[in-house]
Amino acid sequence: MLRYRDISDIDIGKQQYHHNDDKTLTCPLSLLSKSSVNLTRTLAMSANKKNEEGLEHIRNAEKHLKTSLLKWRPDYDSAADEYNKAATCFRNAKNFAQCKECLLKSVDCYKQNRALFSAAKALDQAVLICKELGDLQDVASLAERAANMYQNHGSSDTAAASLDKAAKILEAQHPEQALKLFQHASEVAMIQDSSRQAAEYISKVARLHVKLQQYDLAADAIRRELGLHQQNESFQATGRLAVALVLVQLARGDVVAAEKAFKEWGNYCEAPEVQTLEMLLQAYDEEDPESAKRALNNPFIKHMDVEYAILARDMPLPEGISVPPKATVRENAAPSYVSPNSQTTATVQDRPEEKGESQKSEPKEGSDDEFEGGLC
After folding, report:
1. Of 14, 31, 75, 201, which residue has the fewest beta carbons closer than 10 angstroms?
2. What pTM did the predictor assign?
3. Cα(91)–Cα(86) distance, integer angstroms
């Protein structure tokens, strides 16, 4: 709403609008709807204009690719520039499918002209257009092609950065493809002896393995990252990773491996971290679920990377020996009812000796009768 102080009425076009006592200008909705319609028409006209400009650039590019009697070789450089201009026009017109097609054609022209760096840049743009389209199937292959071109050109750092950008695009919906791109980026960084950058990429690899519940591969990736941090003398990061390695080994169900990891890398941990790990390992060794739960709820573990915090939250606790609950006895309770028949049966059962003696006395009487008349 528009507010005015000293103006009694306002002329807009040929209509006159009066304000109320609260200095609020009242404007009909029809004017707003007309303005929105005009805006959409303007945007549509500009989009059509950009599409026409893009088509004109495509026609110019095709002319540069044609040969004649006096022109034996196509002009790939000029054609690539025209395709790039066409892609820019289609991108402004929100025609992303046509934009991607023009970028790929410019890549072919740059390759024919052996301009690998420019071709790789066009592939990076195609990756971003795939993100706008919502079609991520070609992202991994386009990123791999761009990285290879950057490496052949001698720009390995740019190749690793290109792989990293593409992997971040795929990380949410296609983590397995992002995993391969991060691994490739770490390998490229290792070739350039950039151990810090390689450690960053391997850290992403380890966290993705944890997210996918691939704990064996996650443990291997964490060990490689520990080695790189030790090489760079990043002792604080090494201590945090030692805690992560212990958690991963416990998630694997291997308490012995977790204890070995703590003995090997526990020297890099700070005092609170050491106390937490000792409490956690002792709880799993003694199968004490309550102590293990208290250790896993430590604020330090909760403030780790998201993947490790979720791992600690969902960690299976050790199963202790279940103790049966004691029977509760109420005070001043009435005695339980006892049937008189049960007393008689109990007395009979309590005197089995008398019953046995009576059974034994019967055969003795029979034996006396047999020898009563003597030998005759």
Report:
1. 14
2. 0.72
3. 9
